[in-house]
Amino acid sequence: MLLGDQLRQYRTRCGISREDAGEKIRASASKISRMELGRVGFKARDIEDLLKLYGVTDRKLLKEFKELALESNKPGWWKEYGDALHKWFIRYVGFEEAADQIRIYESQFVPGLLQIEECAREVISGGVDTDEVTEQRIQARLKRQEHLERGKKMWIILDEAAVRRPIGGRERGKEIMRGQLSHLIDICRDRNNITLQIVPFSVGAHAAEAGSFTLLRYSDFELSDILYLEHLTDGDIVDKRATVEAYTKAMTKLSVSAATPDETLAMLEEMLRDLDEE
Known about the structure:
Number of helices: 12
Low-confidence stretches: none
Mean pLDDT: 89
């Protein structure tokens, strides 16, 4: 997607049509369109021919584009989990990997990126014994955390209900909740790349009553933000500007309504103390 967008920018700056670009690489205009939208793979030879057509002659830049084309064709880490992951979610993970900032509002659960393994197991398995597919989904979630916790910027706002909701039965649920709260506290204290806020119950009705959502940002590229909405049986990736802007405004309003990061840390510490005293 990122490589395709760069190619589109070079083409439009030169005033070259998709038809003429397609003819250069022995392809159709629709093939150029699919390439620019990131919906097909790239051949290094095609990239080189298109860039020359667009007037790009710098050898270093040509090399960087060819290397990017080769990288874009490599299967992502999620491919190793085969059919265990839904196709719509696999598509989202690709967008997530490329983003340099992730903004999440979650109303029901601690988001998967921040779940400890015990919590992830309960949420994904529904409290029953895991089969092979379920186990793969759990491992994929943990693997996803590894890639996203290495400096990627995240701004996560949770409804208080998402933090207080017990998972895994009464006694086991306490242990899971204790571990999950401790993990969130560590994130608040030690992760400079992650901003965490909680919307307290006392706020009442707020800007995200419609439900959870994720916004992905690509600051290093001239790409618009992308909105991700997950449903019971599928997920939607939305790039319609008006819709993305509406959710961006909702995220901003939520950040004002929510407790500050320092206040959020104090809330989590108090929740953990209350749990230990029960």
